[in-house]
């Protein structure tokens, strides 16, 4: 059976990532794939040929091929190849299945950075990772923080959650546009799209975000610029505190 466009790449990837094959067995598997002819679907290298190319013993090649066939990476047809050598057919469906499993594992691992779902309780008080206390509300409270007036109005019209706090409304109307103009739209969309203003203290501005690495980035890279945007109304602020919203 002829392979599809990327099947050979998927096969190399599956063999390389396999935890059931040792180093030598993977080399033998790659050598078999290298002998596969995509036009004629022939794959019939002799074990002596593979042993000579890899610099290993023929018996080692024989054991490796038997294991590769047993695990379902190839089908072996006895004496079907040229000069009565065995013919080997890659099991493309097996390689595609391994690729799907690998992609699913990657998505699952990457999902650990996703923001957790929030409780539907209104203004539920809960501790954050930095021992700060913040109010937890519906996810729909996170409105698009852009300087465009019509977009903000549209967002407020479709919002059906509980009323946002006064600090959040002030942030959306006054401070977010300043930060966007100062940092640029690209940086603002990348790092401040989920920011909320939690509290204005005597000497500090307290913001909240939904991921820890975003909080670290904002404090490390943008603290002076953010504080400058708040100083016209709050001239005594000298610190920026960014906490991570977290459900109880």
TrEMBL record:
Alphabetical list of Gene3D superfamilies matching this protein: Winged helix-like DNA-binding domain superfamily/Winged helix DNA-binding domain
Residues covered by the DnaA N-terminal domain: 178-231
SUPFAM superfamilies noted in UniProt: Winged helix' DNA-binding domain
Domain of life: Bacteria
InterPro entries attached to this UniProt entry: DnaA_N_dom, WH-like_DNA-bd_sf, WH_DNA-bd_sf
Record's protein name: Helix-turn-helix protein
């Amino acid at each position: 059976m002829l392979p599809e466009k990327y099947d050979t790449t998927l096969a190399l990837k599956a063999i390389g990532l396999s935890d059931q094959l040792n180093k030598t067995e993977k080399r033998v598997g790659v050598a078999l794939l290298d002998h596969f002819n995509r036009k004629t679907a022939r794959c019939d290298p002799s074990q002596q040929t593979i042993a000579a190319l890899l610099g290993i013993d023929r018996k080692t090649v024989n054991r490796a091929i038997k294991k590769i066939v047993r695990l379902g990476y190839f089908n072996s047809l006895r004496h079907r190849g040229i000069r009565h050598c065995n013919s080997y057919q890659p099991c493309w469906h097996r390689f595609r299945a391994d690729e799907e499993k690998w992609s699913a594992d990657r998505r699952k691992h990457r999902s650990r950075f996703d923001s957790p779902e929030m409780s539907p309780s209104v203004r539920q008080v809960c501790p954050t990772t930095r021992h700060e206390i913040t109010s937890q509300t519906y996810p729909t409270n996170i409105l698009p923080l852009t300087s465009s007036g019509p977009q903000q109005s549209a967002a407020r019209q479709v919002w059906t959650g509980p009323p946002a706090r006064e600090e959040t409304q002030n942030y959306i109307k006054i401070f977010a546009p300043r930060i966007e103009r100062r940092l640029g739209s690209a940086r603002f969309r990348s790092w401040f799209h989920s920011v909320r203003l939690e509290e204005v203290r005597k000497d500090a501005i307290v913001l909240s975000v939904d991921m820890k690495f975003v909080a670290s980035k904002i404090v490390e890279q943008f603290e002076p610029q953010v504080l400058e945007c708040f100083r016209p109304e709050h001239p005594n602020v000298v610190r920026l505190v960014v906490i991570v919203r977290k459900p109880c």
